[in-house]
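Provenance and format

Records in this collection were gathered into a single text stream. Each protein contributes a sequence line and a token line. The two records reproduced below are adjacent in the stream.
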Amino acid sequence: MHLTHRPVQDKDIAAICCFPQGPDELFYMFPKAKYPLTPVQLSEAHRPAQRLDCD
């Protein structure tokens, strides 16, 4: 299997919010978030100012 990646796009946010199926899964994925994960939480976390390694 060949995997690839690309930068997240706005259209991806809603789908990504559906990944965690409960609070424990969300904590593993994104410890600072509150369940259920919302597009606002994810979008704010994606801003470069919120990330340590944004280069």
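Adjacent record:
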Amino acid sequence: MTPAAALKLSPQESSPKGLRLHIGIFGRRNVGKSSLLNAITHQQTAIVSELAGTTTDPVEKPMELLPVGPVLFIDTAGIDDEGSLGALRVAKTRKVFERTDLGIVVTDGPWGRYEQTVVDALSELGTPVIVVLNKSDCGDVPPETLASLQRQGLPSLRMAAALGEGVLPLRQAIIDHAPESFISAPAIIRDLVAPGEMVVLVTPIDKEAPKGRLILPQVQTIRDLLEADACCIVIKESELRGVFEQLKRPPKLVVTDSQAFHKVNADTPPDVMLTGFSILFSRFKGDLLAQTLGALAIDRLRPGDKILIAEACTHHPIDEDIGRVKIPKWLTQYVGGPLEFTTLSGKDYPEDLSSFKLIIHCGACMFNRKEMLTRIRKAKQSGVPITNYGMAIAYSFGIMERALQPFPTALEAFRSAREARL
């Protein structure tokens, strides 16, 4: 197989970024990180220069890497960058750690504190690492570098990235070390239905979605149902009662946009299971159990408490924004007094979470699973409960148990934790 056949390029829109294996490329300045990216993509994706510090912001390149599937390579600034601007670049590089599924640490010979810093940070996040000994055409690898890699059990390979040498061994190393947690990630919905079963998807027309399109969780859920050979009906919330009157047999499940939970709960017969897209994505992108138990913190909120609303995407908010308007309004009514809300979007996320009493996150459809799990991990380390939009809304409306019916383990844990507090 030729390198071009093994590394099949794909249009960026073919797979959403959040579903790709994120492969971070790290190392000091001028060790050949950008040359490696260009070699493996067979394109001049990143600017290559002998001038140290050419790469400033992370450079992303989506590809199809067979047989792994869709991947996203992320070329980063040198971890040894200097000066005030260099410190900002290093900070951005460190942020990439949080979403990296597989790390490639590049060195042109020496192994020191910079390389070890990257390995230690990724290891703490449970991220596998491959070491690339680059510029193999320029001389032998120092014995102390080989000894350090052997002592730590780090897989390594030699490359001359600028010459395009070593691409296929690197490809094989990526295949061999792709994390099992990515390969066996939870389904969205296909494991909840059998072939031929019916699911009703309630999708209000979101004014913040691009014109003529559904939002990403809805599209991905439809695709997952098709892969399960199941059937689905896609409707607005105003049509739900009419659909139940027309169906000869009830659907296996109703899935609703979180902001329509109250109405959809009222219009769905009690013998039909109901959940939300946001709750499906809690399992798909994060930790369903942790975010389920995090919702219990709503009962401990008191007027004046600080709450972080975290959104994965960036959009222009409207008057009916779910995170900035509706959830704050519903929680304020539930608590019976004003609360202090901080809303952050995109990659912005506080290093210090200790001042918050609760974190309410969106469904994270724009993130890969690793980044969402990292955020949940940070919340746990800070002792701050974290839940998501759908669970916070369901809990506020008193329908949390019903929304968890498709997930017996999470439902039982929720009941047990609530009873232990009563």
